[in-house]
Amino acid sequence: MGAFQGAGRNPRQNQSKRRILVAGGAGFLGSHLCERLLNDGQEVICIDNFSTGRLENLRHLLRFDAFSFVRHDIVEPIDLPIDEIYNLACPASPPHYQADPIHTTKTSVLGSLNLLELAARSNARIFQASTSEVYGDPHVHPQPESYWGNVNPFGPRSCYDEGKRCAEALFHDFHQQYGVQTKIARIFNTYGPHMRADDGRVVSNFIVQALKGDDITIYGDGAQTRSFCYVDDLIEGFVRLMRAPASLDAPVNLGNPGEFTVAELAEKVIALTGSSSKIVYLPLPVDDPRQRRPDISVAKRELNWEPSIQLAYGLKSTIAYFERLLARSAGAFAEVA
Fold first, then answer.
1. Is 160 a residue of the active site?
2. Domain spanning 3-192+229-256+293-308 has what CATH number?
3. In contact, 110 and 75? CB cutoff 8 Å
4. Phi, psi (5° rounding) for residue 64?
5. Percentages helix, strand, coil for the chain, rounded to the nearest 5?
6. Residue from 160, 178, 230, 281 carrying the catalytic annotation
7. pTM to 2 decimals?
Protein backbone atom coordinates (compact mmCIF):
# COMPACT_ATOMS: atom_id res chain seq x y z
CA MET A 1 0.00 0.00 0.00
CA GLY A 2 1.71 3.17 -1.24
CA ALA A 3 0.75 6.80 -0.98
CA PHE A 4 1.55 10.23 -2.34
CA GLN A 5 0.53 13.63 -1.03
CA GLY A 6 -0.63 16.45 -3.26
CA ALA A 7 1.41 19.64 -3.31
CA GLY A 8 0.08 23.15 -3.66
CA ARG A 9 -2.49 25.33 -2.01
CA ASN A 10 -6.14 24.42 -1.59
CA PRO A 11 -7.99 27.29 -3.31
CA ARG A 12 -10.99 27.12 -0.98
CA GLN A 13 -11.19 26.55 2.74
CA ASN A 14 -14.14 26.35 5.10
CA GLN A 15 -14.55 25.74 8.78
CA SER A 16 -16.66 22.62 8.29
CA LYS A 17 -13.92 20.72 6.46
CA ARG A 18 -14.46 16.98 6.64
CA ARG A 19 -12.03 14.13 5.98
CA ILE A 20 -13.62 12.17 3.16
CA LEU A 21 -12.52 8.81 1.78
CA VAL A 22 -13.32 8.21 -1.91
CA ALA A 23 -12.88 4.55 -2.85
CA GLY A 24 -12.33 4.17 -6.58
CA GLY A 25 -11.27 7.81 -6.71
CA ALA A 26 -8.96 7.38 -9.73
CA GLY A 27 -11.82 6.20 -11.92
CA PHE A 28 -14.15 8.11 -14.21
CA LEU A 29 -16.74 9.14 -11.61
CA GLY A 30 -14.39 9.02 -8.64
CA SER A 31 -11.94 11.56 -10.04
CA HIS A 32 -14.76 14.02 -10.75
CA LEU A 33 -16.10 13.51 -7.23
CA CYS A 34 -12.65 14.09 -5.68
CA GLU A 35 -12.35 17.37 -7.57
CA ARG A 36 -15.81 18.51 -6.54
CA LEU A 37 -15.19 17.76 -2.87
CA LEU A 38 -11.81 19.51 -2.93
CA ASN A 39 -13.37 22.57 -4.56
CA ASP A 40 -15.97 22.51 -1.78
CA GLY A 41 -13.13 22.84 0.74
CA GLN A 42 -13.04 19.24 1.98
CA GLU A 43 -10.06 17.00 2.71
CA VAL A 44 -10.04 14.02 0.35
CA ILE A 45 -8.28 10.68 0.65
CA CYS A 46 -8.52 8.76 -2.62
CA ILE A 47 -7.98 5.00 -2.60
CA ASP A 48 -7.79 2.92 -5.77
CA ASN A 49 -6.20 -0.32 -6.94
CA PHE A 50 -5.90 0.88 -10.55
CA SER A 51 -7.79 -2.06 -12.03
CA THR A 52 -9.60 0.47 -14.21
CA GLY A 53 -8.70 3.82 -12.59
CA ARG A 54 -5.86 5.91 -14.00
CA LEU A 55 -3.24 8.09 -12.35
CA GLU A 56 -3.77 10.58 -15.18
CA ASN A 57 -7.24 11.30 -13.75
CA LEU A 58 -5.64 12.53 -10.51
CA ARG A 59 -2.69 14.63 -11.69
CA HIS A 60 -4.67 17.87 -11.77
CA LEU A 61 -5.64 17.31 -8.11
CA LEU A 62 -2.07 17.35 -6.84
CA ARG A 63 -2.25 21.14 -6.48
CA PHE A 64 -4.52 20.66 -3.46
CA ASP A 65 -2.87 20.40 -0.04
CA ALA A 66 -6.04 18.62 1.09
CA PHE A 67 -5.68 15.75 -1.38
CA SER A 68 -3.88 12.47 -0.72
CA PHE A 69 -3.85 9.09 -2.39
CA VAL A 70 -3.45 5.52 -1.12
CA ARG A 71 -3.04 2.58 -3.48
CA HIS A 72 -5.29 -0.08 -2.01
CA ASP A 73 -7.81 -2.74 -2.99
CA ILE A 74 -10.93 -2.53 -0.81
CA VAL A 75 -11.25 -6.31 -0.92
CA GLU A 76 -8.66 -6.01 1.87
CA PRO A 77 -9.60 -4.15 5.09
CA ILE A 78 -8.42 -0.59 5.58
CA ASP A 79 -8.32 1.60 8.68
CA LEU A 80 -8.05 5.37 8.34
CA PRO A 81 -9.47 8.24 10.41
CA ILE A 82 -12.34 9.58 8.29
CA ASP A 83 -15.65 11.46 8.59
CA GLU A 84 -17.37 10.26 5.40
CA ILE A 85 -16.93 7.51 2.82
CA TYR A 86 -17.96 7.38 -0.83
CA ASN A 87 -17.74 3.84 -2.22
CA LEU A 88 -17.28 4.04 -5.99
CA ALA A 89 -14.83 1.13 -6.21
CA CYS A 90 -15.87 -1.41 -8.84
CA PRO A 91 -15.41 -1.77 -12.61
CA ALA A 92 -18.64 -0.57 -14.20
CA SER A 93 -18.45 -1.53 -17.88
CA PRO A 94 -19.21 -5.11 -19.02
CA PRO A 95 -15.79 -5.79 -20.65
CA HIS A 96 -13.99 -4.73 -17.47
CA TYR A 97 -16.18 -6.35 -14.84
CA GLN A 98 -16.44 -9.57 -16.87
CA ALA A 99 -12.64 -9.79 -17.23
CA ASP A 100 -12.36 -11.00 -13.62
CA PRO A 101 -15.91 -11.73 -12.47
CA ILE A 102 -14.88 -13.26 -9.14
CA HIS A 103 -12.91 -10.18 -8.17
CA THR A 104 -15.81 -8.00 -9.32
CA THR A 105 -18.10 -9.82 -6.91
CA LYS A 106 -15.52 -9.59 -4.14
CA THR A 107 -15.18 -5.84 -4.73
CA SER A 108 -18.92 -5.28 -4.41
CA VAL A 109 -19.46 -7.61 -1.46
CA LEU A 110 -16.23 -7.85 0.56
CA GLY A 111 -15.26 -4.29 -0.38
CA SER A 112 -18.59 -2.91 0.81
CA LEU A 113 -18.34 -4.97 3.99
CA ASN A 114 -14.86 -3.58 4.75
CA LEU A 115 -15.93 0.02 4.17
CA LEU A 116 -19.14 -0.41 6.17
CA GLU A 117 -17.12 -1.76 9.09
CA LEU A 118 -14.81 1.25 8.80
CA ALA A 119 -17.86 3.54 8.80
CA ALA A 120 -19.26 1.79 11.89
CA ARG A 121 -15.94 2.13 13.76
CA SER A 122 -15.57 5.79 12.73
CA ASN A 123 -19.20 6.84 13.17
CA ALA A 124 -18.98 8.00 9.54
CA ARG A 125 -21.72 8.46 6.97
CA ILE A 126 -21.18 6.19 3.94
CA PHE A 127 -22.37 6.42 0.33
CA GLN A 128 -22.77 3.45 -2.02
CA ALA A 129 -22.55 3.87 -5.78
CA SER A 130 -25.10 1.27 -6.80
CA THR A 131 -26.43 0.90 -10.32
CA SER A 132 -29.48 0.71 -12.54
CA GLU A 133 -28.22 -2.80 -13.33
CA VAL A 134 -29.99 -3.96 -10.16
CA TYR A 135 -33.17 -3.67 -12.27
CA GLY A 136 -31.75 -6.10 -14.88
CA ASP A 137 -33.73 -6.26 -18.13
CA PRO A 138 -36.75 -4.46 -16.65
CA HIS A 139 -40.41 -5.33 -17.10
CA VAL A 140 -41.39 -1.94 -15.62
CA HIS A 141 -40.63 1.27 -17.50
CA PRO A 142 -39.42 3.75 -16.39
CA GLN A 143 -37.83 2.12 -13.36
CA PRO A 144 -38.82 3.43 -9.89
CA GLU A 145 -36.85 2.52 -6.76
CA SER A 146 -39.75 0.30 -5.66
CA TYR A 147 -39.22 -2.06 -8.62
CA TRP A 148 -37.40 -5.24 -7.56
CA GLY A 149 -35.94 -5.91 -10.99
CA ASN A 150 -35.52 -8.77 -13.44
CA VAL A 151 -31.92 -9.92 -12.99
CA ASN A 152 -30.39 -13.16 -14.25
CA PRO A 153 -28.35 -14.50 -11.30
CA PHE A 154 -26.52 -17.00 -13.52
CA GLY A 155 -25.37 -15.00 -16.53
CA PRO A 156 -22.27 -13.13 -17.71
CA ARG A 157 -23.47 -9.89 -16.08
CA SER A 158 -24.44 -11.47 -12.76
CA CYS A 159 -21.09 -10.77 -11.07
CA TYR A 160 -21.85 -7.05 -11.32
CA ASP A 161 -25.64 -7.04 -11.05
CA GLU A 162 -25.86 -9.43 -8.12
CA GLY A 163 -22.75 -8.02 -6.44
CA LYS A 164 -24.36 -4.58 -6.37
CA ARG A 165 -27.66 -6.01 -5.13
CA CYS A 166 -25.85 -7.77 -2.30
CA ALA A 167 -23.99 -4.54 -1.46
CA GLU A 168 -27.33 -2.73 -1.13
CA ALA A 169 -28.50 -5.45 1.28
CA LEU A 170 -25.34 -4.98 3.37
CA PHE A 171 -25.90 -1.23 3.50
CA HIS A 172 -29.50 -1.78 4.59
CA ASP A 173 -28.48 -4.23 7.31
CA PHE A 174 -25.63 -2.10 8.68
CA HIS A 175 -28.08 0.78 8.94
CA GLN A 176 -30.68 -1.35 10.69
CA GLN A 177 -28.35 -3.34 12.96
CA TYR A 178 -25.64 -0.81 13.82
CA GLY A 179 -27.23 2.55 13.04
CA VAL A 180 -24.68 3.42 10.34
CA GLN A 181 -25.84 6.41 8.30
CA THR A 182 -26.05 5.06 4.74
CA LYS A 183 -26.81 6.59 1.35
CA ILE A 184 -27.41 4.55 -1.80
CA ALA A 185 -27.49 5.97 -5.33
CA ARG A 186 -28.68 3.83 -8.22
CA ILE A 187 -26.73 5.28 -11.13
CA PHE A 188 -28.03 5.21 -14.69
CA ASN A 189 -25.87 5.56 -17.81
CA THR A 190 -23.35 8.36 -17.26
CA TYR A 191 -20.75 9.80 -19.62
CA GLY A 192 -18.18 12.59 -19.82
CA PRO A 193 -14.45 13.39 -19.61
CA HIS A 194 -12.13 10.96 -17.79
CA MET A 195 -13.75 7.90 -19.37
CA ARG A 196 -11.23 5.43 -20.74
CA ALA A 197 -10.92 5.04 -24.51
CA ASP A 198 -11.40 1.29 -23.96
CA ASP A 199 -14.22 1.79 -21.46
CA GLY A 200 -16.51 -0.46 -23.46
CA ARG A 201 -19.74 1.44 -22.82
CA VAL A 202 -21.80 2.80 -25.63
CA VAL A 203 -20.98 6.55 -25.50
CA SER A 204 -17.21 6.10 -25.34
CA ASN A 205 -17.32 3.29 -27.92
CA PHE A 206 -19.22 5.39 -30.44
CA ILE A 207 -17.10 8.52 -29.93
CA VAL A 208 -13.76 6.71 -30.23
CA GLN A 209 -14.92 4.77 -33.28
CA ALA A 210 -16.22 7.95 -34.94
CA LEU A 211 -13.02 9.91 -34.24
CA LYS A 212 -10.92 7.08 -35.67
CA GLY A 213 -13.18 6.71 -38.71
CA ASP A 214 -13.92 3.10 -37.78
CA ASP A 215 -17.28 1.42 -38.20
CA ILE A 216 -19.66 2.23 -35.35
CA THR A 217 -20.84 -1.04 -33.84
CA ILE A 218 -24.40 -1.30 -32.60
CA TYR A 219 -25.27 -4.49 -30.75
CA GLY A 220 -28.80 -5.58 -31.60
CA ASP A 221 -31.11 -3.60 -33.87
CA GLY A 222 -30.39 -0.23 -32.22
CA ALA A 223 -33.95 0.14 -30.95
CA GLN A 224 -32.96 -0.53 -27.33
CA THR A 225 -33.05 2.65 -25.26
CA ARG A 226 -30.75 4.31 -22.76
CA SER A 227 -30.87 7.53 -20.73
CA PHE A 228 -27.59 9.43 -20.70
CA CYS A 229 -26.59 11.65 -17.79
CA TYR A 230 -23.60 14.01 -18.02
CA VAL A 231 -21.07 13.49 -15.24
CA ASP A 232 -21.38 16.99 -13.70
CA ASP A 233 -25.10 16.48 -13.16
CA LEU A 234 -24.51 13.11 -11.54
CA ILE A 235 -21.82 14.38 -9.16
CA GLU A 236 -24.18 17.14 -8.01
CA GLY A 237 -26.69 14.39 -7.24
CA PHE A 238 -24.08 12.48 -5.22
CA VAL A 239 -23.27 15.49 -3.07
CA ARG A 240 -26.92 16.37 -2.47
CA LEU A 241 -27.75 12.80 -1.51
CA MET A 242 -24.83 12.60 0.91
CA ARG A 243 -25.93 15.86 2.56
CA ALA A 244 -29.60 14.83 2.78
CA PRO A 245 -31.18 14.02 6.16
CA ALA A 246 -30.19 10.70 7.70
CA SER A 247 -33.77 9.49 7.33
CA LEU A 248 -33.24 9.21 3.56
CA ASP A 249 -31.54 5.81 3.72
CA ALA A 250 -33.37 3.98 0.91
CA PRO A 251 -31.90 3.77 -2.62
CA VAL A 252 -32.37 6.83 -4.86
CA ASN A 253 -32.28 6.79 -8.66
CA LEU A 254 -29.82 9.27 -10.17
CA GLY A 255 -29.86 9.62 -13.94
CA ASN A 256 -31.31 11.55 -16.84
CA PRO A 257 -34.88 10.59 -17.74
CA GLY A 258 -34.36 11.75 -21.34
CA GLU A 259 -34.57 8.53 -23.38
CA PHE A 260 -32.81 7.82 -26.68
CA THR A 261 -32.41 4.73 -28.80
CA VAL A 262 -28.87 3.49 -29.29
CA ALA A 263 -29.25 4.15 -33.03
CA GLU A 264 -30.18 7.78 -32.31
CA LEU A 265 -27.07 8.15 -30.16
CA ALA A 266 -24.90 6.78 -32.97
CA GLU A 267 -26.35 9.29 -35.45
CA LYS A 268 -25.79 12.17 -33.01
CA VAL A 269 -22.15 11.18 -32.49
CA ILE A 270 -21.55 10.90 -36.23
CA ALA A 271 -23.09 14.34 -36.81
CA LEU A 272 -21.16 16.04 -33.97
CA THR A 273 -17.81 14.53 -34.98
CA GLY A 274 -18.31 15.01 -38.72
CA SER A 275 -17.23 11.40 -39.08
CA SER A 276 -17.56 9.26 -42.20
CA SER A 277 -18.02 6.15 -40.06
CA LYS A 278 -20.61 3.61 -41.12
CA ILE A 279 -22.96 1.88 -38.69
CA VAL A 280 -22.74 -1.90 -38.50
CA TYR A 281 -24.99 -4.19 -36.49
CA LEU A 282 -23.80 -7.11 -34.36
CA PRO A 283 -25.68 -9.63 -32.19
CA LEU A 284 -27.04 -8.33 -28.88
CA PRO A 285 -25.04 -9.59 -25.86
CA VAL A 286 -26.69 -11.95 -23.38
CA ASP A 287 -28.94 -10.20 -20.83
CA ASP A 288 -28.37 -6.74 -22.35
CA PRO A 289 -31.32 -4.57 -21.18
CA ARG A 290 -33.80 -3.48 -23.84
CA GLN A 291 -34.97 -0.37 -22.00
CA ARG A 292 -33.33 1.77 -19.36
CA ARG A 293 -34.82 5.01 -18.04
CA PRO A 294 -34.94 6.26 -14.44
CA ASP A 295 -37.96 7.48 -12.57
CA ILE A 296 -36.33 10.34 -10.63
CA SER A 297 -39.40 11.46 -8.67
CA VAL A 298 -37.67 10.71 -5.35
CA ALA A 299 -34.54 12.70 -6.28
CA LYS A 300 -36.67 15.64 -7.39
CA ARG A 301 -38.74 15.61 -4.21
CA GLU A 302 -36.07 14.80 -1.61
CA LEU A 303 -32.95 16.37 -3.15
CA ASN A 304 -34.42 19.07 -5.38
CA TRP A 305 -32.25 17.49 -8.07
CA GLU A 306 -32.68 16.79 -11.74
CA PRO A 307 -30.20 16.87 -14.64
CA SER A 308 -29.78 20.19 -16.47
CA ILE A 309 -27.14 19.39 -19.13
CA GLN A 310 -28.55 18.47 -22.53
CA LEU A 311 -27.15 15.50 -24.46
CA ALA A 312 -25.79 17.61 -27.33
CA TYR A 313 -23.74 19.81 -24.97
CA GLY A 314 -22.47 16.86 -22.96
CA LEU A 315 -21.49 14.96 -26.11
CA LYS A 316 -19.54 17.97 -27.45
CA SER A 317 -17.56 18.21 -24.20
CA THR A 318 -16.91 14.46 -24.17
CA ILE A 319 -15.88 14.42 -27.83
CA ALA A 320 -13.39 17.25 -27.16
CA TYR A 321 -11.92 15.22 -24.30
CA PHE A 322 -11.47 12.12 -26.45
CA GLU A 323 -9.95 14.18 -29.25
CA ARG A 324 -7.26 15.35 -26.81
CA LEU A 325 -6.83 11.85 -25.38
CA LEU A 326 -6.38 10.23 -28.79
CA ALA A 327 -4.02 13.00 -29.94
CA ARG A 328 -1.80 12.42 -26.87
CA SER A 329 -1.85 8.67 -27.48
CA ALA A 330 -0.90 9.19 -31.14
CA GLY A 331 1.94 11.52 -30.13
CA ALA A 332 3.29 9.05 -27.60
CA PHE A 333 3.16 6.26 -30.19
CA ALA A 334 5.00 8.43 -32.74
CA GLU A 335 7.77 9.15 -30.20
CA VAL A 336 8.21 5.43 -29.47
CA ALA A 337 8.20 4.56 -33.17
1. yes
2. 3.40.50.720
3. yes
4. -90, 125
5. 40, 20, 40
6. 160
7. 0.92
